[in-house]
């Protein structure tokens, strides 16, 4: 597969069980000069506040915060979906929160973020699916693939819970990057060095 040559406006990342460990490798490796927005949906407990921003903000060169409804998408930031809300990308581009029914028993659901971002950004979107214990994110990654965005999947053998990566690999025939978290971080930095992120 040819190396991408277009600029990516956003990176969407999804995961569940085991994904935080992967993110602790990937997100702190992103440089302060990254131009793309990074939007993360993780399956977290819906009945308590998320500690993700407190965990990641001190470790990352980029600004980290929890998404607010109708917030403009800012370049060079990392945004986490809040507990018990679906996070979508809307025209603007803006972030949008929804209380629609859970999908795959999850709110936020990865599929909803990935599909809305694919609809809006198409080939300017990079999607990353990490470790997780159900099939959420597989349909969304397929939507990114159909929109000619770039797909990355955590290698199942490096995932604490390989169900989610395996579901995506079963659905998306040609994922160009099936990598462990360290190799994902290296690939993202390479894209940034080439001026694509």
Topology diagram in text:
Blueprint: E1 10-15, H1 19-26, E2 37-42, H2 52-56, E3 63-66, E4 77-80, E5 86-90, E6 94-98, H3 110-121, E7 125-129, H4 138-146, E8 150-154, H5 163-171, E9 177-179, H6 181-193
Parallel strand pairs: 1-2, 1-7, 2-4, 3-4, 7-8, 8-9
Antiparallel strand pairs: 5-6
Helix pairs in contact: 1-6, 3-4, 4-5
Which terms would index this structure?
197 residues; alpha/beta; seven-stranded parallel β-sheet
Short characterization:
This protein is of the alpha/beta class. It has helices spanning 19-26, 52-56, 110-121, 138-146, 163-171, 181-193, and strands spanning 10-15, 37-42, 63-66, 77-80, 86-90, 94-98, 125-129, 150-154, 177-179.
Indicate the mean pLDDT: 95
- Quaternary status of these chains? single chain
Can you count the beta strands? Answer: 9
Number of helices in the DSSP assignment: 6
Mind explaining what this structure looks like?
The protein is of the alpha/beta class and 197 residues long. It is built from 6 helices and 9 strands; from the N terminus they run βαβαββββαβαβαβα. The chain has helices at residues 19-26, 52-56, 110-121, 138-146, 163-171, 181-193, and strands spanning 10-15, 37-42, 63-66, 77-80, 86-90, 94-98, 125-129, 150-154, 177-179. The strands form 2 sheets. The chain has a 7-stranded parallel beta sheet with strand order 3-4-2-1-7-8-9. Strands 5-6 form a two-stranded antiparallel sheet. Helix 1 packs parallel to helix 6, helix 3 runs parallel beside helix 4 and helix 4 (138-146) packs parallel to helix 5. The two termini are 19 Å apart.
């Amino acid at each position: 597969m040819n190396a991408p040559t277009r600029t990516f406006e956003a990176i969407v990342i999804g995961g569940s069980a085991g994904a935080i460990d992967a993110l602790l490798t990937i997100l702190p490796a992103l440089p302060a000069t990254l131009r793309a927005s990074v939007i993360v949906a993780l399956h977290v407990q819906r009945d308590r506040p998320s500690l993700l921003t407190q965990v990641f903000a001190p470790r990352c060169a980029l600004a980290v915060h929890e998404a607010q409804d109708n917030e403009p998408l800012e370049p060079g930031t990392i945004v986490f979906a809040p507990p018990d809300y679906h996070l979508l990308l809307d025209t603007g581009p803006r972030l949008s929160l929804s209380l629609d029914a859970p999908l795959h028993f999850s709110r936020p659901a990865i599929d909803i973020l990935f599909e809305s971002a694919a609809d809006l950004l198409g080939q300017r979107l990079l999607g990353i699916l990490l470790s997780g214990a159900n099939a959420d994110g597989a349909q969304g990654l397929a939507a990114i693939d159909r929109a000619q965005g770039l797909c990355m999947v955590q290698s199942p053998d490096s995932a604490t819970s390989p169900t989610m990566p395996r579901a995506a690999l079963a659905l998306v025939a040609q994922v160009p990057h099936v990598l462990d978290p360290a190799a994902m971080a290296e690939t993202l930095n390479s894209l940034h060095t080439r001026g694509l992120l």
